[in-house]
Amino acid sequence: MQSQAVDILNELGVSVNRISTTGERGAFDIETDFFVVEIETGLKHSMEDLKERIAETNLRVIIIVPNSELIDKYQGLGERVLAMTIDSVRKMLTEPVRSNQGKDLSA
């Protein structure tokens, strides 16, 4: 799913600064100038590592989950956190100022 997310970002002209390697700890999966992306499978028992990384960044955090049933699990992780499926990413990033969840992405 990471390569699919990178492809979408590249197609939309988003400059990707860093892509983490598989299994790399302590880093978001994809980093850009304006937001970071974390790919989640929903299989984690503890989200402490993810919570720490969210707390350490001032950027918007997009969490991509494999299905819509997992969105609620990640939705409450903070004001700057958006949880969505890969299919929703393109739509959210192409909307002018607001995401499909009504959050201003310029914050």
Would you kindly provide a written description of the structure presented here, covering whatever features stand out?
With 107 residues, the chain is α/β, with parallel strands linked by helices. It has one domain (2-46, 58-94): 3-Layer(aba) Sandwich (Trna Endonuclease, Chain: A, domain 1). Helix content is 31%, strand content 21%. Strands 1-2-3-4-5 form a 5-stranded mixed beta sheet. Helix 2 (48-56) links the parallel strand 3 and strand 4 (60-65). Mean pLDDT is 85; it is low at 98-104.
Helices and strands in order:
Elements: H1 2-11, E1 16-19, E2 30-32, E3 35-39, H2 48-56, E4 60-65, H3 71-75, E5 81-85, H4 86-94
What brief labels describe this structure?
107 residues, alpha/beta, Trna Endonuclease, Chain: A, domain 1, 5-stranded mixed β-sheet, 4 helices, 31% helix
Which band does the percent of strand residues land in? 15-25%
- What level of helicity do the residues show? 25-40%
The CATH class: Alpha Beta
Q: How many discrete structural domains?
A: 1
Question: Which regions contain 5 or more consecutive residues with pLDDT less than 50?
Answer: 98-104
CATH architecture identity = 3-Layer(aba) Sandwich
By secondary-structure content and strand pairing, the structural class works out as: alpha/beta
Shape: globular
Widest sheet: strand ordering: 1-2-3-4-5
Helical segment tally? 4
Question: How much is the average pLDDT?
Answer: 85
Give the biggest sheet: 5 strands, mixed
How many DSSP-defined strands?
A: 5
Computed over alpha carbons, the radius of gyration is: 13 Å
